[in-house]
Write a structure and sequence with these properties.
The protein has one domain: Vaccinia Virus protein VP39 (Rossmann fold). 40% of the residues lie in helices and 19% in strands. The protein is built from 10 helices and 10 strands. The chain has helices at residues 13-29, 53-58, 77-87, 98-105, 119-129, 142-149, 169-184, 199-211, 227-232, 251-266, and strands spanning 37-40, 47-49, 94-96, 111-115, 135-138, 157-161, 189-196, 217-223, 239-245, 272-279. An 8-stranded mixed sheet has the order 5-4-1-6-7-9-8-10, sandwiched between helices. A two-stranded antiparallel ribbon has the order 2-3. Strand 4, helix 5 (119-129) and strand 5 (135-138) form a beta-alpha-beta unit. Helix 1 runs parallel beside helix 4. The longest helix has 17 residues, at 13-29. The mean pLDDT is 93.
Length: 281
């Protein structure tokens, strides 16, 4: 569907966790000189103006990244550095989406494939990445694009799958696509973002991944309030998480320390975190 616009939600608590994990993975990838490829299946516009009508309407960044800018966070410095990079100041005017974050890590030998279907966001994404000849933007279905791009020529790669899940079929389709992609490219790092609106949808994703035979799967999640209470109040997304396949060996320890700090900073009293190994390596 083309009704979803991430510009309404840029910089919220879900983005914070997602981008912290992405940055940790990309920083690990560039420690080796060998090239890698980055595939972003639902790229959005790449860069978001937090003073725009969309961002101001919901103001979600204020209770996300906005809460983290005022004090020093040693563990968050890689993430906050990326945010400051697009602002050129400590004041918060812009927020980098995953394509702009990835662009900061790409070297001359690396490549990125960015997929987006919304025509307005595609145009903005093209404008935001025009200066980089190792980034290609395609106005097409990202899940199909992923299957067409793996295995990458570089034989090293990071895949971010970040749909809106407006259509409930997306939950199953994402897992099915990852299983197919993994069969073609078993060594790739796959990052699968999910929103918790109905926990049973996420439980079904988890079961399919665990039963797929894929090894080395971890989960990181930050919840603002308990599922049962959220459901009783008819709330929307009250938790957000990531399944990560083939994560860097350093990621789990970092998130184990960082997630409780994020819970204290961003969640209410009923907030919670999940940091767990779903399938061993």
């Amino acid at each position: 569907m083309l009704s979803y616009r991430h510009s309404y939600h840029a910089g919220n608590y879900a983005d914070v966790v997602k981008h912290i994990v992405l940055i940790e993975i990309l920083a690990y990838m560039v420690k080796k000189p060998a090239p890698f490829e980055y595939i972003d299946t639902h790229s959005g516009a790449g860069l978001y103006n937090l003073r725009s009508e969309h961002a101001v309407k919901l103001g979600e960044y204020r209770t996300g990244v906005g809460k983290l800018m005022a004090k020093p966070w040693p563990l968050l410095e890689p993430y906050l550095t990326q945010v400051r990079e697009v602002n050129r100041t400590d004041k918060l005017y812009y927020y980098p989406g995953s394509p702009m974050i990835a662009q900061q890590f790409l070297r001359s030998q690396d490549r990125a494939w960015l997929y987006e279907l919304h025509p307005s966001d595609v145009k903005k994404l093209e404008d935001n990445t025009r200066a980089y000849n190792n980034i290609r933007v395609e106005c097409s279905d990202g899940l199909r694009g992923l299957l067409a791009r793996v295995p990458p020529k570089a034989r090293r790669g990071v895949v971010l799958i970040d749909p809106s899940y407006e259509v409930k079929a997306d939950y199953a389709q994402v897992v099915e696509t990852v299983i197919k992609a993994h069969k073609k490219f078993t060594s790739g790092v796959y990052v699968i973002w999910y929103p918790v609106v109905e926990r049973q949808q996420i439980d079904a994703m988890e079961k399919k991944l665990v039963r797929s035979g894929i090894r080395n799967i971890q989960r990181y999640e930050l919840g603002l309030e308990a599922d049962a209470e959220a459901k009783a109040k008819g709330a929307g997304m009250t938790s957000s998480g990531l399944f990560v396949i083939n994560p860097p060996w350093t990621l789990f320890a970092t998130m184990q320390e960082l997630l409780p700090q994020l819970q204290a900073a961003l969640a209410e009293d009923d907030g919670f975190v999940k940091c767990e190994v779903l399938v061993e390596q």
